[in-house]
Design brief:
The chain is 45% helix and 12% strand. By secondary structure, it is an alpha+beta fold. It folds into 2 domains: 7-207, L-fuculose-1-phosphate Aldolase (3-Layer(aba) Sandwich), CATH 3.40.225; 241-313, no CATH class. α1 (7-23) runs parallel beside α5 and α3 (109-116) packs across α5. It binds zinc ion.
Length: 317
């Protein structure tokens, strides 16, 4: 089978994150699992750690590739081993959140203590906003590896990037798998602090307004780091580059022409990021470069109207 976009890189990143997860003490023995998205032409696909293998002995070729088959309307597995028992949970997370490129599932001890009490982590510390909201919720219990568990986790992740899973563990997601791992580490850290805090008495929590302020500041940081992190933005398709679409919304399947187009736009992105860095360095106010970008976008819109998709698809390689 032909490799998917970013497959080789995704395999490496899963191995790195799996070792990182074990090294950070987030899992004991063979518990937990890690996955990263790779895809082609809008088809959801990802690589996940196999079931029951030691992380230290894991090689890129050991990972399971799972993708959605539009013909049979089923998830298809390929690889030398059985995928992790929670593969369906990862699959449904990727399907529901197209912008997410990595998922980490752990049984990290302190967070799991709270999960076993079905205790969400409230806004006792501003870093709880790393979840994307004002708390870290706890998904309802269901038997591991079942569609019901996948549904419960999806429900908890509706407006969050991480959650506890009752009587089980933690799930964290991110635009790539290293971000998902950082978030899983943060959840464990927060859980640890929260447990100690509870031992001193009832915990004081930040107000909704205070947390909204934190979330706004986090989102400004994220925009900035996305812009400045050029190496990362050149790596994966899921962290900024659009899937190319016809004017009627259909995905353009991945052809050589799309790949070249993709590369050219990445290069433009890098040049624009350089220009913005220079603007920041010499002290231009942000309104000024926003004005420049808006003018550029308005110019494109008037000069290049959308074409008929049939015309576009003709002659595709
Ligand atoms: Zn588990």
């Amino acid at each position: 089978m032909k490799p998917f976009d970013n497959e080789a890189r995704a395999r490496e990143s899963v191995i790195r994150a799996a070792l990182g997860m074990a090294g950070a003490g987030l899992v004991v023995n063979k518990a937990g699992n890690v996955s990263a998205r790779c895809e082609e032409g809008g088809r959801t696909a990802f690589l996940i750690t196999p079931s029951g293998m030691d992380y230290e002995s894991l090689r890129p070729a050991d990972l399971s590739l799972i993708y959605w088959d539009d013909g049979t309307k089923q998830w298809v597995h390929s690889g030398p081993h059985k995928p992790s028992s929670e593969w369906l949970m990862h699959a449904e997370i990727y399907r529901a959140h197209p912008g997410w490129g990595g998922v980490v599932h752990t049984h990290s001890p302190r967070a799991t203590v709270l999960a076993c009490r079905q205790t969400p982590i409230p806004a006792f510390h501003y870093m709880v906003a790393a979840s994307g909201g004002e708390d870290i919720p706890c998904a309802k219990y269901a038997l591991f590896g079942t569609p019901e568990l996948a549904r419960n986790v999806l429900e908890a992740l509706k407006e969050r990037r991480c959650c506890l899973i009752a009587h089980h563990g933690v799930v964290a997601a991110g635009s790539d798998v290293s971000q998902a791992l950082s978030l899983a580490v943060e959840v464990e850290n927060l859980a640890s602090m929260y447990i100690e805090l509870l031992a001193l008495g009832p915990a004081e929590v930040l107000t909704k307004d205070q947390m909204r302020e934190v979330l706004e500041k986090f989102s400004a940081y994220e925009d900035n780091s996305r812009r400045l992190s050029r190496r990362e933005s050149a790596q994966t398709r899921s962290d900024g580059m659009p899937l190319w679409k016809y004017a009627d919304g259909r995905n353009i399947s991945c052809t050589e022409k799309v790949k070249v187009l993709d590369e050219n736009f990445r290069e433009i992105g890098r040049l624009m990021a350089d220009a913005l860095d220079d603007a920041v360095l010499i002290g231009c106010p942000s309104e000024q470069y926003r004005w420049a970008l808006e003018n550029l976008a308005a110019g494109l819109k008037s000069r290049y109207p959308d074409q008929n998709p049939e015309e576009n698809s003709r002659g595709g390689s």
